[in-house]
Amino acid sequence: MSNSHLFLKSGFPRAPLQNGVGRYICQLQRITLKFCKNNGSSRGMREFIEKQLIDFAKENPGTVVYVKPRRHRTPVIVAEYLNGDREWHNCRNLSKEEITQWITLMKTQNGSSSSLRLRKMWHTDMPSIQGPWTPFTLKNPASNLVIFPNEELSKPLDVEKSATEKLIELFREQRLSEGKLEENRGN
Questions:
Q1: How sure is the predictor about 16, in pLDDT bands with cuts at 50, 70 and 90?
Q2: pTM of the model
Q3: Which of 29, 43, 88, 94 could form an SS bridge with 78, CB 3.0 to 4.6 Å?
Q4: Paired strand residues for 35
């Protein structure tokens, strides 16, 4: 087992601001694109800024976008969320498409998903040794010895009429009763 969870914050899962209950609120508050104007490792970031940044800003009016040129530094994306969390991603030698994918990922997250060790809401001193329930748990073991194709298992189940068939039958009965009423009126 890994001990990497020792350095993560821990907490219980919760929906931020009850997001999605009434309407969706994008949790990405601001995003900062840091890059070098001359360095070759920032080429993808510069292409993204030149060709796709305006479209991203128009599609996401609730997200503030900062562009910060820095000399002789690796390109970085810093995302800040409504819950106060900050995430950053190193974009050294990434293409424009890869940067677009990372920004889309950051836009759809809530900030705490990758930096929070989730705890359970319950605890037990004696966990089950039987394993999880599956659809095959209570099946008859004799069904494991059946040789396929099997005619008995291939027969259609005795199912009642479908709703469409019932409606057609009711319609025919109504037509017949209307026809009898017209015959009685005629007599």
A1: low
A2: 0.56
A3: 88
A4: 69
